[in-house]
Amino acid sequence: MRLLLLILFVIYWSRVCSAQPIRDTTLEIMHTMIYFQSNDFLIDSLNKFRIKQLVDTLSGLRHRFFTIEAHTDDDGSTEFNKKLSDHRAESVLNSLLEFGVQMEQINSTSFGKLKPEVSNNTTAGKAKNRRVQLTMYGKFPMKLLKGQIVITDTLSQQAIVRIKDDIYLDSVLTDIYGNFSIFAPINRKLLLSVHSGELFAEPQIIFTRDIAFLSPLKVKVSQVTLNSVLTLKEINFVGGFSIVLRESIPSLEYLLQFMLANKRYCFEVAGHINFPGKPIPKVTGTAASEIQKMELSESRAKAVFDFLKNGGIDSTRMISKGYSNYNMKFPEPKNEAQMKANRRVEIIIRDCNK
User: Whole-model pTM?
Assistant: First the structure.
């Protein structure tokens, strides 16, 4: 009987999921510019390479297509330049075919001299106008993703929820209760972030498989108050060094935007290390000492401090400080995930008047 109920439950939710509205959305993936000499329409080796690079990008993506938009400078008659841009478009089209793109995947248009990108009054301007823009698009199935911001207090203002990956970006405003709905591409890895002057929520990775659309997402956020600690678990470092891992960049960028939006606050950038009682890897060729441990935590804080300063944060709003291994989240880490959590930077909200 229980097995039968389980089967019926799975069938029910499968139908609910499949019944959700799906729409196809066309997105620009990337483009490249092909430039030509005056009165020329031949593709040189460098431009061949650019075209191949574009074709090879996401070559496994289904339902992709290419557009060709060909242009000239304004030397010569309208009829002459229309034919010249036709030849340029044909040259790029033939290169696409050579690299395996099918004819039905290509849409080609030539404009002659009718749509200059810049003024033709200079030699450099004419060179910029003798061009073909080659763009790759993809069609992506989308479903409605629902969620709610979870906070102990009530919202005093609506927040912006943003989802993005390398080729997709969209955002939506929550209602006064924190609820939101946004169309998201299916079967992709997206970064979800919440933007509000009063709230802090570390960006989270979501995988938009069927299960993500079955029930509303719960996005935990915290209210910004003086002396509160903003822990960014995704700002991590190479073991034994102050080198920020590449995976940390989205969280750093979110932190930058958060600090830009909260100019009334100052911040302490606090660096921590993983040192559970055994020596960490050698940093300067000698065994790690207490001084070296402190210096490593300080250099990690300084790395984040410098990122924020270079992003436009006034350095007088920040201080950086190292805490060595005094405040490890996991004093006796059991795995790499716990060790990575110890190698972290925290942001502490401070009063600018003190």
Answer: 0.64
